[in-house]
Amino acid sequence: MRAAVFDSRSNTPEDWVSIKDLSRPQPQPGEVLLKVIACGVCRTDLHIVEGDLPPIRPHIIPGHQIVGQVVDGATLDLPLGTRVGVAWMGGVDDNCWFCRHDMENLCDHPVFTGYSVNGGYAEYVSARADFTFPLPAGLDDFHVAPLLCAGVIGFRSLRIAGVQHGERVGLFGFGSSASLAIRVLQSWDCEVYVVARDESHRNAARSLGAI
Questions:
Q1: How far is CA 112 from CA 11, 91, 94, 116, in A?
Q2: What is the biggest distance separating any 2 CA atoms in the chain, rounded to whole angstroms?
Q3: pLDDT digit string (tens) for 175-201?
Q4: Taking the C-alpha atoms of 75, 81, 82 and 87 in order, what is their torsion angle to the nearest 10 degrees?
Q5: Contact assessment for residue 77 and residue 88, using Cβ atoms and an 8 Å cutoff
Q6: Which of 29, 38, 19 is nearest to 86 (CA)?
Q7: Which stretch of DSSP H or E encloses residue 3?
Q8: 91 with 131: CB under 8 angstroms?
Q9: How many other C-beta atoms are found inside a 10 Å radius of the C-beta of residue 152?
């Protein structure tokens, strides 16, 4: 397969990421092999490539907003051909206190897609089957990919804040998560106010109906 590989040992920016021919990954027990259909670009991918996050491996395939199709390692829940999503958190240890108390997002030993394990800037990727998410047919591949990171972050924030239908809601800053969350809020008939320092962000918020 072909893949975009980040070399953390390179001192030349032009060589940080290059297209290489690699062997197709072999799914391990508990994993599925996905043919990548789409993979979004997140600011975190840029943080990894630009060295803002310390490298974990000398070579890594970035990308954690993956839309893929199961082509190997199928299960009863994930038969061949199933379209699934893969997000930033690619696995946990299943044993720490947080995992045992249904707070796996705080796991002591998490696995991150495109950072500690290879991600989706490739033709194929292996992923833990229990960390893939079957995707509804009503969303096309290119629009659903960003929902697997920025979309999830924004929606989780609304859930934790306890936002109810019809309420007034303030968003502080207007990046990718907020630009997706505002659509959810509008579908809930909420009145949305945005505070942002950057004029382009304020203009973007107004264009999407914010106050």
A1: 24, 7, 15, 5
A2: 52
A3: 999 999 999 999 999 999 999 999 999
A4: 100
A5: no
A6: 38
A7: strand 2-7
A8: yes
A9: 19
pLDDT digits (tens, 9 = 90+) for 4-27: 999 988 877 677 899 999 999 999
Both tokens of 190, joined, read 């909420």
Retrieve residue 129's tokens: 């089957």
Q: Are 140 and 166 in contact (CB under 8 A)?
A: no
Place of tokens 């040992």: 9
Query: What Å distances lie between residue 30 and 75, 128, 139, CA to CA?
Result: 9, 6, 27
Only one residue has tokens 């199961």, namely: 70
Could you give all domains of the chain from N- to C-terminal order, each with its CATH number? 2-137 (3.90.180.10), 152-207 (3.40.50.720)
Query: Is this structure's pTM higher than 0.90?
Result: no
